[in-house]
Amino acid sequence: MNATTKRMLVGAAIVLLGLYAASSVLNTWSAASRLQLDRQDLRELRQKLDEIERVADAPRVAALELEEPNQILDRINAALQQANLSSDLLSNQTPNQPQRIGQTDFKLRRVEIKLNAATVPQIVAFCDALKDESTGSLVRDLQLFDPRQSGSRETWNSQLTLTQIIFSPKSDT
Question: Is residue 32 a part of any domain in this protein?
Answer without folding.
Answer: yes
